[in-house]
Amino acid sequence: MIYRENGQFKTTYAADQQIFTIAQDKVFVLGVIAFAFIGIPLLADEYMFRAILIPFLILSLAALGVNLLVGYCGQITLGAGAFMAIGAYAAYNFMIRIDGMPLIFGLLLGGLASAGMGILFGIPSLRVRGLYLAVATLAAQFFCDWAFLRLGWFTNYSSSGSVSISNLSVFGWGIDSPLEKYLFCLCFIVVFAFVAKNLTRASIGRQWMAIRDMDVAAEVIGIRPMWAKLSAFAVSSFFVGVAGALWGFVHLGSWEPAAFSVDRSFQLLFMVIIGGMGSILGSFFGAAFIVVLPIFLNQVLPALGHLFGIEISTAGISHAELIIFGSLIVFFLIVEPHGLARLWSIAKEKLRLWPFPH
Amino acid sequence: MGFFVETLIGGLMAGMLYSLVALGFVLIFKASGVFNFAQGAMVLFAALAMARFSEWANIALGGDNLFLANVIAFFAAGVVMFIAAWAIERLVLRNLVNQEGATLLMATLGIAYVLEGIGQTIFGSEVYPINVGMPKDPVIMFESLFEGGIMINKEDFIAALIAAILVAVLTIFFQKTPVGRALRAVADDHQAAQSIGIPLNRTWVIVWFVAGLVALVAGIIWGSKLGVQFSLATVAMRALPVVILGGLTSVPGAIVGGLIIGVGEKLSEVYLGPYVGGGIEIWFAYMLALVFLLFRPQGLFGEKIIDRV
Fold it and tell me: What ipTM did this prediction achieve?
């Protein structure tokens, strides 16, 4: 009844090619953004920002990057954590080695460094496909783990191996409180989400999707696989690199290579698969699921045990978390292999007809 | 020269241990097209079961017959692995038939979490020893050929021997027995196999069970070497380059790949490591596999990938 495109006529090509062609969608998205900028700062407390909202925003950005590569270009990667690390360490080095480097430029340069490495590690994708490629991308992961641990130059020869950056500020505005950090990340994610959405609608995104659906056929109709695959690796690594820099600078403050281990890579791939491959919105759903679930389990399990009069040890809780997390992932893959984004589009279809049955 | 040969032999033996883990990957991929990331968790799970059952059986038997306790533990752990295989097929694989490779991969990661969690809940999460009477002392060989001889770890030698026997047994099982033939038929073409009356579900249970047994053997060998602990699950990460180097669908590939990776790792660590700060084993193995893949994208012995539009 409410969600209908009836009567919304497009009279120009420009109107026909807008991001959100349906007025309700446009209103909804603007409403969500407005709520994120105004509503949440009024409602959420410090713990919410620190434990849930900031990690959620940064990891959605990373998941978005991974989704461009895995969901849109069909190249499975298990090395996303490495590119987060490259982004973080490159941005760190730009910040400390160049005096007066503005924060935003530092973050973006970190992303660019990550994009460069992404192209390098994407080269095997021209020969190697599918699961072989997935394992091959682990090379990037283990190489970066090693490089940032053993090569002192990257960490500015810090004795403990952990690096930190302090006094973040943009245009004289200091980013200290959780609220400011949240807003800073939010600005990034909004801009990048729109960039990603437009990329996937543009010719480059269509080339990626053609490669994903069948690369030989795409090559036959004149798409250059090298350009398409490497550009996907570059753009994806750029997104992931910026997310990594934000993760290090804004969320962690000081970090070690272990913050970007292979588990992080798996986590990002989980977000993409559970959220929905080839869906911008899905990246957000996936990130929300993966960020919130462990916190939820951590809070609920002891309470639940208490309810039944069982005291569960800390180790027991962490094992139970593993079991429940694993089974939920399998469960979601079984009931909705196309991800949470698919549920969303089914809901939209239903909404279109509501309240009539047909 | 003696030192070089010693490194080489050490690498070959380490390689056999990698191929043992890699075998599990290959078995499951061949039969069900699933890239099983849970293989490492299965190794941990099996090793935990073995270590604890052996401990419990030893106590129950009064502590004087370690051999019998180990045999009992081995069979008990085998039963546990069968239950695990059955549950995985029943609860997960059956519901995910015909899904994409990436989805199945993620599902096995989920299985890995569950196995790690359950294993540590039931069997505990400390470091447990496995004592199956493996000799720990090194022996010196070929003293007449090289100055000072070559030191070989007896434990590694026996482990390599066990791995070789296991491969031979598996090869016979796949080539000569009816069940093995059924497995190969399913691996070749699911639908064709089903149409001639091979039950897919039972075949999958069998192949996961066989992979579980391989994991058990790998777990016993690795466990008696390093002690059974959580880090055993990461052995899978060391075995992955072996799998892609040898080819996902080839049992001999897993062996040859394991040997190449084992030797490459050891030689690089000894001769290249000191120049760049050491610890390069892990990524060197991946790089080595990557270089091979650039020339043969399907691995050394994998089935040729043919693309048709």
Answer: 0.84
